[in-house]
Amino acid sequence: YFYRKGKTPRRHPPKKPSSNQTDPVGVYCRVRPLGAEDEECCIEVISSTTIQMHTPEGFKTNRNGEYKETQYSFKKVFGVSVSQMELFEHVAKPLVDDLIRGKNGLLFTYGVTGSGKTFTMTGSPGQGGLLPRSLDMIFNSIGPYQAKRYVFKTDEKNSIEIQTEVDALLERQRRDNNLPILPFFFNYGYGVDDDSSYSVFVSYVEIYNNYIYDLLEETQEDAIKPKPPQSKILREDQNHIMYVAGCLEVEVKSAEEAFQVFWRGQKKRKVANTRLNRESSRSHSVFIIKLAQAPLDADGDNVLQDKNQISVSQLCLVDLAGSERTGRTGAEGTRIREAGNINQSLLNLRTCIEILRENQMCGTNKMVPYRDSKITHLFKNYFDGEGKVRMVVCVNPKTDDYEETLLVMRFAEMTQEVEVARPVDRPICGFTPGRRHRNQQHQVCFPLLLPSLPSCELTDPHDDITLPRLIEALENRQRIKQMLIEDYSKTANMMKPVLQELDTSLISKDNFIQEQNGKLIEKDKIIQGNKAEIERLEKKTKMQEHKIDILQKTTKIFEDDKRSLQHELETREQRLQRELSEKRRMEQRMHGVISDTQFKWEKECERRVNALQLEMQNKLWVKDEKLKQLKAIVTESKTPGRPEPPPRQTQSASPSPVPTTTPVRPRHRRSCSAGGEKWVDHKPSSSMDLGTVLQPVIPNAIQVSAPSEKALSKCDRYVLTHQEVASDGEIQTKLIKGDVIKTRGGGQAVQFTDIETLKQELTTCSVAVAMRAGSNLGPGLEHHAVTKRRKP
């Protein structure tokens, strides 16, 4: 189904009945002579059906580094020395024969611009092309049997009507255009049906920018404001044949008259001057020759007044515009648009041919896009079996056209594989043959055999001369008749044995012919069977080749998919490896973080345990000291004369406790020489007792828990006291020293210059009294100050 705008969908029209036999599209090749003798040639004619193309220098070679030479075969190849007459005999004459027999034909020239298409179709003075020679053959064949002008009349629906002799005479008088039949100039001819009457109609259209224009349409010329021509549309007649609606069809009676009509339209055709062709066709031209024929009546005098007995056949001669590249032709503006439309229409033609070939070879049923272009839509009936199709491929052997000629050759090679159904023959009228000649013989022979009768007019009732004269004449005619009968009888008797002998020999010959026909029929059956088998094998081979192509394409697609999937798999594997590596790095990092955290917490727990142990030992030591002092007081009160020595203590397995929060503090601190400098002693608030370790004594120092701008502005030096538990569990004090300097903004800043570390150690002796720098420490304990300095 297909849809038309504003109308309901309808089915494709049924095809015209055709025979089961098919004919391939006949493709011929004509080689144009080179313009200059020293010009390089890329085409060589190697036989009457084959040409060979040579790759010119400068073009790409094959993989082996050699120039590729390709051969193309055609139905017949015409070299540079072939005449126009020989070309017509092989290409156009069979189509004209079919036209006179009532069959349609399509002949078109195809090739690049400047390859000789117009010369092949039209010719030149003294060298007529296919078109004038076809017209000459038609009129030489039907000349004596043409009907009078306007007996056949066209209507607007692509059909022919028959008028009576009176109506035709009136129309001739009204139009005053009864031109005489002019002489012919090519001496072609063909035997036609003597009992039919013929008439020829011609029309000439061009397809320009995919619009159809009538070249024979009379337009009113206005020099001030010229009116553009109106485009025509394509329609379908009652027999489902495509035609140009509103196109003027001119009845012609001679080849010269038809050629004059052709030249009248040729003057209106669109041509332009390009870099490659001085008169380049910018449109596709279609010259349609329509032949109408109808049988004579039973008397053989007039055309039978029956519209159903009219047979209309047509021959379309098409001069396609040449394909071209705008870079070579130097086209600009309108020429570029024309070239684009020409190339697009030729591309649509190639597409239709390619789909037809695919449907026939592969058994597919794809829709052929005839409607995409006017040229293919107009001639779709020919490819559906309405007539023979012939194509003349014109090529220019110069090297500049090599690439475009290569495309033309490929299209021609593909076109030859398209089969067109052969149309059925039209039915023959049931009248007795030879009606025209029999009527002429009666009119000529009978008046010569018998004498004429005398005047039979009686002017007087007593006239005794007229009647006896008439009786004598009748008796004379009777005697002549009897003599003719006797001569006829004698001749018949003499001819009977001759006829019998002839009949006998004819019967024997007929029997022999029948025997030979029987043998020929058997041979034909064998040949037909072999042909059918060959066709079946060829179709099977083509089908297998098509399947191989499909499998190769499928394999290529699968290989591409495989490569893409492998690439994707490799990409994902690399991504997975990266993720695994990242995961291992994260695990290692987390293990490190966990180990560091675990180590920190272990140290923190150990520190807290040591701190608790130290606090408990200090409390126990304080209680022991109090008990000892109490015991000493008691002992002194008992023996006031001599003090007793202190009791000896045994060595304990556990280390002596180190006081941290004991109220007994060192009596002497380390002093920092201040000189003339003034210090800021920064002792931050802390849970630890700073008195457990030797502390510096700074005279005239301002002690603060947090530094302030006011305190820093009054001092020159700065010291920060920081106490912490070392890695070995001992308590250490850090003295961080620095200089107070003034900034450009009027503030104060501290530049650290020295770090002093103070550390205490516990001795291993069980009972000891250490006195250092005037300090009174507990028994069994001794503090050692370890000082470490380092530059910040």
UniProtKB/TrEMBL annotation:
Residues 1-24, 634-685 are annotated as: Disordered. SUPFAM superfamilies: P-loop containing nucleoside triphosphate hydrolases. It is found in: Cytoplasm, Cytoskeleton, Spindle; Midbody, Midbody ring; Nucleus. Residues 1-15 have a biased composition (Basic residues). ATP binds at G111, V112, T113, G114, S115, G116, K117, T118. Keywords: ATP-binding, Cell cycle, Cell division, Coiled coil, Cytoplasm, Cytoskeleton, Isopeptide bond, Microtubule, Mitosis, Motor protein, Nucleotide-binding, Nucleus, Phosphoprotein, Ubl conjugation. InterPro entries: Kif23_Arf-bd, Kif23_Arf-bd_sf, Kinesin-like_fam, Kinesin_motor_CS, Kinesin_motor_dom, Kinesin_motor_dom_sf, P-loop_NTPase. Residues 527-589 form a coiled coil. One of its GO terms (cellular component) is Flemming body. Residues 24-418 form the Kinesin motor domain. GO terms for molecular function: ATP binding; ATP hydrolysis activity; microtubule binding; microtubule motor activity. Gene3D superfamilies: Kinesin motor domain, Kinesin-like protein Kif23, Arf6-interacting domain. Residues 649-664 have a biased composition (Low complexity). GO terms for biological process: cell division; microtubule-based movement; mitotic spindle midzone assembly. Its main location: cytoplasm. CDD domains: KISc_KIF23_like. It holds the Pfam family Kinesin. PANTHER family: KINESIN-LIKE PROTEIN KIF23 (PTHR24115:SF600), KINESIN-RELATED (PTHR24115). Belongs to the TRAFAC class myosin-kinesin ATPase superfamily. Kinesin family. Heterotetramer of two molecules each of RACGAP1 and KIF23. Found in the centralspindlin complex. Interacts with RACGAP1; the interaction is direct. Interacts with ECT2 and PRC1. Interacts with ANXA11 during cytokinesis. Interacts with BIRC6/bruce and USP8/UBPY. Interacts with ARF6, forming heterodimers and heterotetramers. Component of the centralspindlin complex that serves as a microtubule-dependent and Rho-mediated signaling required for the myosin contractile ring formation during the cell cycle cytokinesis. Essential for cytokinesis in Rho-mediated signaling. Required for the localization of ECT2 to the central spindle. Plus-end-directed motor enzyme that moves antiparallel microtubules in vitro. This is Kinesin-like protein. It comes from Maylandia zebra.
